[in-house]
TrEMBL record:
Keyword Oxidoreductase: yes
Domain Catalase core, first and last residues per copy: 9-369
Organism this protein belongs to: Streptomyces spororaveus
SMART domains per the UniProt record, alphabetical: Catalase
Keywords, sorted A to Z: Dioxygenase, Fatty acid biosynthesis, Fatty acid metabolism, Heme, Iron, Lipid biosynthesis, Lipid metabolism, Metal-binding, Oxidoreductase, Oxylipin biosynthesis, Peroxidase, Plant defense
Xref: InterPro entries: A_dioxygenase, Catalase, Catalase_core, Catalase_sf, Haem_peroxidase_animal, Haem_peroxidase_sf, Haem_peroxidase_sf_animal, Oxylipin_biosynth_metab
Protein name, as recorded: Catalase core domain-containing protein
Amino acid sequence: MDEVERYERYVGGSPEAERRVFQRLAGDLLRVQLKVKKRSGSPTLERTFHAKAVLGVENARLTFREDLPKALRAGFASPGAEYPVTVRLSNASGVRQPDSAPDLRGAALRVEVGSGETHDLLMTSFPVSHARDAREFVAFARAMAGADTRLRKGIALFVTLPLAVGWPTAVRMRRNVVAGTRRTVSSLALETYWSRGAILWGDAGPVRYQLRPVADAPAAPAAAPSDPDHLRRELSQRLRRTDVVFELCVQRYVDARRTSVEDGAAEWKEEDAPVVPVATLVVPRQDVDTAEARACASRVDQLAFNPWHTTEDFRPLGNLNRARKLAYEASSAHRAGLRFVTVEPRRNAVLGAPLRAAFRVVNRVVPWHRLPTPLGLLNLMAFRQTLRRENLIDTEAHEAPPRAEPAVDGPLSGELLVRRSYDGTFNDLSAPRMGAVGATFGRTMPPVYRPDRFDTPNPVTVSRELLQRDAFIPATSLNIIAAAWIQFQVHDWVKHRRLPVGVKSVEVPLPPGETWQNTPGGPRERVMRFGADEPVSGPGGERSPIVFASEVSHWWDGSEVYGGEHFTADRLREAGGGAALRLEDGHLPNGSGGGPLTGFADNWWLGLSAMHTLFAREHNTVCEALRREYPRMDEDRVYHTARLVVSALIAKIHTVEWTPAILATETLDIGMKTNWQGPPKKWLDQLGVWLLEANGRDGIPKTLPDHHGAPYSLTEEFVTVYRMHPLIPDDYELADHRFGRRLDTLSFTDLQGAAAEPLIRKTGLVNTLYSLGIAHPGAITLHNFPRTLQAFERDGEVIDLSVVDLVRTRRRGVPRYNDFRAGLHKPRIRRFEDLSSDPRTVARLRDVYRSVDDIDTVVGLFAENPPTGFGFSDTAFRVFILMASRRLQSDRFLTVDFRPEVYTPLGMDWVERNGMTSVILRHCPELAGILPRAASAFAPWRPVQPARNNSGRG
């Protein structure tokens, strides 16, 4: 690589900086594809360039010369070596037009060496590119997209292009284009094709290559301008009579001035770099008009040629070539329907900026939640645009600089197209690892990694003074099912990889005079100890201390019910590959260690057991309905379809029921329903979407997947704002749903871990849901952290979960509260009084923290006075604004593949008609008179009044 780097110069000074630039340019090229499609009226996407194939054959042969110079003998280039070659000859335009139209011509070769080794050689019929680099190349493509008339071409070349690149550059680009396209071409067999960019040729260093016709090639008749396909017809007639033969030649690098590697518009003149023939390409005599030949040409036309389909010894060089890796991959994936592009309507782009600026001014005086509902919704949409532009940070280690790889063409498995994988791979078919198990947590803002502040102030002191529950503070608008639900969801979304305590521990010093028992029955120690997060290894094996991977997929795929890998998923299904999930008398079967057999059983307690049991039963009911409706559907298809349906139903419940329950305002109720089904029919709501987010006018499930400029992932800040442990009460009363009589009173310790499954079997799902439905969770506020979670036994450890929350947030580089606010575009606080109006809280904050800038993120989020009706802070809500729609909009199975062909018509209807209330009543019909009539199932239920004589009879 060091040898290569002496020829190359990276945009932005580093391979990673250049990759980010090229990624944006690749997105621009995808929009060019869409524009060309729209202008041309084509029903399908074409190649961005070289759309019209003239010849496509798979039976050509490339033979290296016996007298190949020793300096050029490298890799597959050896004397006498012969290889099969696929050849595609084409017109260069991205628009299919008559062969007589001024145009460049192109040649693409795929040399099949064997053992997974291929080499794609791409050439055009002019020795230099019109563009020096990728930026100019894309600017030209954008200007010329859809320019299919003389007027449009004139406007593009003389107005649009100069505005994009400047007048001198536009003049040079026009000159090159005119020089390359002014000739009348009579036969593609008689054209010379140049590589333009350089490639490495083993130890020989950089070369440019060219394909030129042999000297004795038969002449062609004059072109027939009246025949739009005369080039294909000429080649067809030529190949019926004789072979078509070319020489493959190279020019070797001399120096940076005469043979530039980085400047694609600089010619390598033959007097400086002589042309050396190295091989002969023969397209054998054949009839290309038979049905077999046409099928072959169609296969060739579907291939994704890319100069990076090669080996490192022959890797492409230079700016244009490095950009081609991302650009060609994106373009071919887009053309094949594996990648999607959402074009923002012009009015949204034009109006978005002034509206965002206007609301920034308004919000200095009036926050969004105090505006009239239509304005509040418009405000939130504008702010979400800001967050999408500025608060999506990718943390994955990407390939930079590009690496060579063999071509892998062929259709994806049909199962991948219509089924969720277990580990989240292939949700985005063009980036299979995106969001999968092992993908890294992204960031909503730049991290702040300060090891010197890990223990300052002491997190144990923070917990005791500000978090610990003094007296239970209820959230009276919710029931405990809402608390169980969010943990049920979080287990589907996020799980950091953690190292065992014995491998690497986090040690938290205790305040003077305190000790802690880190293991059950273990010694008292002066430190708290728990397992550290496992950081991700980078490309070179180095570990970033603040980049972490998730052990569950980032997608909304029901992995907490179904498992996140094949082995677990199979264990959960009925024996013999049945579609249903295993249940024993309607309950989860026992797994190893006394816990339940389910997809995710960490931190198990009665509320989680109820959610898992309920949705395992729902899965089995969907399976029964699918079997009845589609008796010819096999069990594997039934299982995977039911899995899709239940996962989508869970996403819908969270979006349109749980969220409006915990953020109980009219604005949020409308906003979340708009996410799922589009805005209400009121003209003001419709107008807001038309102005800012027209692509969501029918709801996110009817849009295309959109990652908004950054690969999809959940973020460390998202994990932080979902630290909602105060929702958990310390004690519970179990009651009979028929008579309201008390069955038992238990502490949280009594209904968690191994105790949960025997308890739910004893109590029954109906009484369990009733008991959780009539009781309130805790409010998400200071001084309300469950005491039972402050000495919590888990996996052989005794931990204070409040301390763990504080420490992990600090060590993961999540900014402290004031920086967190600023990162989410809120004004910084200047005094402790700006955070809380409670004098007692302010006094404790002053005692614990030196300044407002030291306040822990979790503490600040809990201390805020939330908007009226909100169950958590406005600052936390800002992360939610961004991620709530992103979890839907990035997911193929909740957008473009949320359709009857994938889910079945029954499945689509099931998701449409059902919600949390109907799910509960389907499996617990006894609760029909108890569930709320005019509110969601997450609102408090009507308690049954016990009989006065307490006899158990109504």
